[in-house]
Every structure is written in C-alpha cells, then in structure tokens.
C-alpha cells in the first residue's frame, strides 16, 4: 500500500513538472517572438543592387570625357558605391576622376575627386620582403553613407580630369544591369544597351527571414500544446533517436552563435568536439536517468555557454577561456553597463534550442538504467572521459594534426577547433607547475648575490607617496595617429608639467584583464608567462 501511494505521488509530481515545463516553454516561445520583432533589424543584410551580364566590355575615359549613369533607389540608404575598372596598371598614371552623385533635382549628395593612383589602388600598396602587393580587385569601392529617397532617380557622374589618351581609364560596361538602371550616357549621348558596371550597396531587411522565424516559432507553440499520445514502443525509439541526434544539433547550435561553419572544421577537431558533446549528455543521463531531462538540461547549459561567449566576444573581441572564471565577479559588476542585443546567428541558435526543447518535452519519461546497468554505464563513461582528457594533453601529436591552442589569437583558435574543444584544451594551461628546484630559500640565495641600489637623493628619509590613476575609459588617440581637431581635446592633461611624470603604457590585452594591467604595472613583470 505504501509503495502504491509512493508511486502515485511520484506520478503526480511528474505530471506537475510536465505541465510546468510545457507552459514554461510556451512562455519562452512567446518571449522569443517578441525578441525577434524587437531585433528584426538584425535580419538586415547588405545587398548590392546591380546584376551585370557575364560578358565583359569596356570603354576608355580620358581628359574631358563624362559618363552618366542613372539608377532608381530601391532603399533609403546608399552605403557604398562600387565601380568596375581596369586595374592592370603597374605604375602610376596621371589624372583623376570627378565622381559626383546627384538627386533628381540635380543637387549633389556626394562628391569626391580621387586621383588615378587612388582609383588604381596604388596608394594602399603593401610592401613585403619579396614583392609589393597591390589590390588586384577590379572594383573601385567608395564609402558613401548617404540617405536616399526610395523610388527617386539618382545620377552617378564620372568625369575624366587630366587623363592622357595613351594611358586612359577603362570602365567596364554591360548591356543589362537590371530594371533599376537606365542606359548610360557618354559625353551627352545616350548609348543603347550600355550601362556602367556599378553596384549600389545598401542594408535591406530580409522580411521573409523574419516571417519564417516567427512562423517556425508559432508552429512549435502549436506542436507543444497539441496532445500527442505516442505508444510506449515508439516513444522509446524516438527517445533514443533524439538522444543520438541531439549532440550533433547542439554542436551546430553552439558553433552557429560563434559564426563558425562546422562543415569546414578540421576533421579531428570535429570528431573530438562530437565526442565531448556525447560525454556531456551521457554524464547528465547518468545523473537524471531520464533522456528527457538529460537533453533539456544539456541543451540549455550549452546554449547558455554559447550565448555567454557571444556577449563576451561582442564586448572585448575574444572568447571565454578557463582563466575568465576567476574574473567572473568583475565581469558581472560591469555587465550592466553594456547594451545586450541578439544578432541573426544568435536568433537562429535560439530557434534550434527551443525546437530541441519542444521535441524533448513531447517524449514520455522512463528510467533508462537499473542500478547494475547504471554502474556499468558509469564505468564506461568514466573511462571514455579520462581517456579523452588524457588525449587533450598530447599537445605535440594534436599540433601535428592541426589541433592546437592559439595563445595569441584565441578567437582564431576557437574558430578552427570549436568552442567546447578549445575551452577544454585551455584548461591545462591555467595550472602553473612549480619549476624544479624552486623554493623561497633558493630565491633568497639568488637575491643575496645582488646589492640593493639607492636613488640619487640619499638624504631622503621618508619614501614619497606615488599616486597612480588607472583610468580604463581614457586614452589619447593621438598616440596612434595624429588627429586634426578645431580645438584641443585634452588641454588640462597636456598642460601638466610640474611634479608630473608622463609616458606611454602598453597593456597586454584589449578588453577585460584589468587585474593583468595592475599586476604588470605594480610588479614590472609580464603576464605573458602566466596562464
């Protein structure tokens, strides 16, 4: 009787938890729809208006020649203008172009006069030890960043200035550039089936992506609210099928947030990542002894880790490493000063998480292991975990296979090896091993060989107080590059001369790591040898 009452109470508890889980996921789905609509601008993407034919033709532009190309604005901005030119010149040529963009009333909204050195890409040549590299891209790209009136016709005027006939500028043309472009004019004469190969770049909202995301979310709400009785036999099959597939989908979810296409990842790194995902879910399965709860907890944990890494990347440009755990308190203190927003990959990852949770929620729970099988599974999982951990320490072998920690550019290392694997590989470097023969006595013995030096003022009895202000939000950008301003930016700082010592300090990291800068300043030691 007691056992029956206990089973009844357990069934009631599972029933309550199932309802709480179901309606909790429904609320999360509704909140996600609101999030998508509030962040719909994240579905915007840069698009180029202008679809030329494949056949390349070109015209000469010399001194006095004027080419006019009109187009109809299909958006409210013109962020960049690309013009296809012939860049086969290896040395500079004389002249310049007058590039003017006008509205329908003839008013100029953008005007520049670049030299042909700039147009040909010869002013930004990069010298190397072997040769000089030049941008061979045929597109001359100009940042415009001007607002347009959608539907209005605008004019692009290109006029040659001082360009010699023997070394002309070649503009590529096309007989068809799409509906928004009119036929171009050369020196006032309209040319039939003649268009300058230009691309007008703008940011455009992908409405279909927003609608599709909301539609998928609504479908998930309908699915989770629809009663679905699955026979016990098929429930077990679906449960194990989801358990097998889930780690792969979770892997995609985590790397999606990280902008990392897993299809091009190193094969060994790919396999090691998948193995660790299975290890995580097997550990959770041993804890809960229920596939549903193992999947739900694992997916939410991995999603939270990925989103945490997403925000850290947005704030400081580097991913989360094991060493950041020690600075978690500082991170929480400053987190409220940042504006958090989701971009498109993070939104896609959220859809994946909610979909996994809905599918897991539809399954009935049942015990996976009895205590004997559970012990066997525990032993196997422990052996695989220990073996995999040991394999991570074989750094020389892994490095030969292209799997290694990138200490100087962790972001590249995470992109190459995957988030979870890179994080685990970094753990071994957070522990500093004591060198052979090290002891306080040995250090004192080494120090005894050196004499203590004194300053020039030997009569000074009292040491001075040194006041140091480490202002993290302050920097003088003129140190990097001289900036011309109509008034002095820091008159007081620049005026300090009496009883003041000035200089430049090089910090070891950009974004975060306040304690590192403090340690290096106070001790004079570098953190480069520390984890």
Question: Which terms would index this structure?
Answer:
single chain, alpha+beta, six-stranded antiparallel sheet, 43% helix
Structure description:
By secondary structure, the chain is of the alpha+beta class. Helix content is 43%, strand content 15%. The chain contains 15 helices and 15 strands. The strands form four sheets. The chain has a six-stranded antiparallel beta sheet. A hairpin with a 2-residue loop joins β12 and β13. The longest helix has 37 residues. The protein is flat and about 95 Å long. About 2% of the residues have low confidence.
Summarize the structure.
The protein is an alpha+beta fold. The protein has 15 helices and 15 strands.
| SSE pattern | HEEEEEEHEEEEEEEEEHHHHHHHHHHHHH
Counting helices, strands and paired strands, the structural category is: alpha+beta
List low-confidence stretches.
126-136
Number of helices: 15
**Amino- and carboxy-terminal Cα gap:** 60 Å
Radius of gyration: 32 Å
- The side-by-side strand order for the widest beta sheet comes to 6-5-10-3-12-13
Mean pLDDT comes to 83
Strands, total number: 15
Give the biggest beta sheet: 6 strands, antiparallel
Into which percentage range does the β-strand content fall?
Answer: 15-25%
**Envelope shape:** flat
| Helical residues, percent | 40-55%
